[in-house]
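Minutes, methods subgroup
Present: GH (chair), OT, SY

1. OT presented the first of two proteins processed in the latest run. Sequence and structure tokens recorded below as shown on screen.
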Amino acid sequence: MDTATFDFGPQTGIVARLAADTPDARLGDPTPCPDYTVGVLLGHLTGLAFAFHDVARKIQGPATGTPPGDTVPVLPADWRQALPRALAELAEAWRDPAAWTGMTRAGGIDLPGAVAAAVAADELVVHGWDLARATGLPYVPDPAALDAAHAFLKAAEKDRGEGVFGPVVPVPGTAPLLDRAIGLSGRNPSWSPPREP
């Protein structure tokens, strides 16, 4: 997969703002991401931000060697400081052209740097949408990150049935690119939180 380089800063900034605007009272609420509450999702975002910093720097260790799903994400007590810091460090790490070349490791899998960047874009765009939908906050992803995420998800479409993606949710080709990416991720773009009884 050939991915053009782009700046992660706009998308990490969007996710950081969503997190900052998430009230503590919403941490137990459901999200479109199966089995994840808002708090677990924020824990996942914190962990993946640290991990994809190390992926960019080609640092091998627990953050890059642990397969997804092996552990349940834990929301650190200092997440309101840790998450924006980790997101900013992720963006800075991917500004190094060397991050996009050669091989690296993510989730225990060796892969080219440009593919790892596409995975990071997918995580940030889709989980940003998850968080926004769960909390009712507005969400407009960075266009460059969205393009990369959609291209990655489209390329991964043929591999359904394996890995972490659920079945594709059909979305019209005329739908906005974000909706098409969300459908490819196995989510329904019209998802909304369950109503209180």
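2. SY then presented the second protein from the same run.
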Amino acid sequence: MTDEYYMLQAIKEARKAYEIGEVPIGAVIVMGGKIIARGHNHVEKLNDSSAHAEIIALTSAFNFLGSKYLPDATIYVTLEPCLMCAGALFWSKIGRVVYGADDEKNGYKKYVIPLPSIKVAGVGPWPFHPKTELITGILKDECAMLIKEFFKARR
């Protein structure tokens, strides 16, 4: 399976969020070629500002595996993770983060400022675990369109 295939699965999760009035962000976690966890936003449903797609998927994966670390897993998420989710992904030690559309308003990159003068390990523009690989822009137009449609319908 390809990154595009799994991102399409994350888009399916995002559509579920859209259908229940949540900001349409979806995520799936893959390990060994198998989807082990799925998630979409539940912020409104649970009245919980931390109930992002990534957090829901991570919790499901931890429960499925009985482990708090995911070094051999990949998360596919339709939108650039926020700073909170980037932190959760850091602590999960996930092997790969793959996201679709950039989030200029609330994505982690807005808050992570490169600090070239600081030479301390772990300080700087990388919010994920040092061994985590980052892939961006997979089906970005499709991912961005869901968000645009959602907010256009509410304005």
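Chair's summary of item 2: Strands lie at 26-31, 34-40, 73-79, 96-101, 133-136.
Next meeting: continue with the remaining queue.
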